[in-house]
Amino acid sequence: MKLERKLWLDYYAGTLLLMALKPPTVLLGKLLRRNHSLGECSTVTYLKMMGGGSLVIAYPSLLAVKSAPNVRRLQLLTTPAIRPFAEALGVFDEIIVIRDQSLRLVLTDSLKALGRLFRTDAIVDLEIFSRLTTIFALVCCTRNRVGFYTNASFWRRNISTHLLFCNVSNPIYDFYDQVALLFGGSIPSVQDCRNLFRRNLGIPDRRGERGAPRRIGVSPGCSELSRERMLRTEDWAAVLRAKAARAPAVFEFLGGKGDRETVREIVAALGPEAETRSLAGELSLPDTVRRLAEMDELVCIDSALLHFGRLIGTPISAYFGPTDPRILLRPMEPGLDDLHYLRISCSPCVHLAARAPCHGDNLCMRHAAGSAPPGSSNPVWLAQYAVPADGGQRKGCV
Known about the structure:
Structural class: alpha/beta
Distance between the termini: 21 Å
Largest sheet: 6 strands, parallel
Number of domains: 2
Strand order of the largest sheet: 3-2-1-4-5-6
Order of helices and strands: HEHHEHEHEHEEHHEHEHEHEHEHEHH
Helix content: 25-40%
Number of strands: 12
CATH topology of the largest domain: Rossmann fold
Number of helices: 15
Oligomer: single chain
Shape: globular
CATH superfamily of the largest domain: Glycogen Phosphorylase B
């Protein structure tokens, strides 16, 4: 299913189910008075249906929960698109997949997953804004349902048994860490996380073994969620030419099969004088991460490869606009991150607006790349993005 249909289904079907199920849930909660102590949970299941990068951000928290005194098994319920990211992390004992290519598959796999997770000890819902994941945890009759609420998700009260306030203007990893503390876990250090992840993927420590020309990884793509995060082809060409002008470099383009056309356009814009290799769609995700470990630098936007690169200790040059690096990037080793971001008045907009206020004309990313028109951060300039009085929509995403 397309993203818009998934979001439509989550909102409208989820709202109807919440209206039907909340009153009896509140009543049964008062009558049954079940024990909701998280300290007695031996099996913990996470729900994450979109955004593989979020799992990488949550990696320290996941390790902490898995090492909690009473936790014996860590599971994940997810979609086919997110499964490779979970497998690369190597922290889950079991990954249960709900295929989301059609409504029929969603319903069929959801029923199967319901049977496997029925009356499980605890479900942690990482989908902060989803209604259907909240409903799924409820109909599983899960004793402990851990979730997040915002100023707009009051409907989760009396549905989830443990609610954490998520202030979307503050670092998301702080809220993931709070989940681990609920289960009695202790957050490992960044270096411990890095060492364990590299060891699980078989990545040797090759620091200092750099050669010439420099090998620079380039990750221009992202998931279908908030594609306003992407840079324009001409901006990529300008950024990479500037890198090559400072020192000879070989650019290795990384990503999935869906990024191949984007890579072809960037390579064509760079011209024959640039030394490039396209590996988009050629490597599995674990092999891509191993490749990242050999790079002198990764140039990227806000995507899962950014978070993998930081986790393994590769120097990063990243461009942000619709998202804020302060919210997403856990402090790590000083000097490895070169971040490009200008917080104009409409940024960040992801998770704060159902549609980007620029209607896909991501001016914030042009500011990050240094190609925005002079004065375009001024509110007078930004007022041009107002939706027309007739309700028409401007041209879509980049």
